[in-house]
Design goal:
Distance between the termini: 79 Å
Helix content: over 70%
Strand content: under 5%
Largest sheet: none
Shape: elongated
Order of helices and strands: HHH
Number of strands: 0
Oligomer: single chain
Radius of gyration: 24 Å
Number of helices: 3
Length: about 90
């Protein structure tokens, strides 16, 4: 059995995720409605691909969150507390 190669970019992963979900729905429907064993195998294979894709998409989301935290400007509360803590020079 050939292994599933995950697309390189997040956008490609999301379009692939949608495509595989649609494939799963179709094969599962054929399996349940017409009792086709081969459709059951294809549905299970699609689920494995979905599982692998979800791990990569989850990492994408986590990396985006971590990147946003690093780039986020200081909140107003942090700025105020820094101003209050700074010594005031008298003129």
């Amino acid at each position: 059995m050939a292994s599933y190669d995950v697309p390189k970019t997040a956008e490609e992963r999301m379009s692939e995720f949608t495509r595989i979900c649609d494939e799963f729905k179709q094969e599962y429907s054929l399996f349940k409605d017409r009792q086709k064993k081969v459709s059951g195998h294809r549905a299970r294979k699609a689920l494995l691909c979905i599982a692998k894709l979800t791990r990569f998409v989850r990492k994408d989301i986590q990396n985006d969150i971590a990147g946003a935290k690093k780039e986020a400007p200081k909140s107003a509360e942090q700025t105020l507390s820094a101003d209050v803590a700074a010594p005031v020079e008298s003129v």
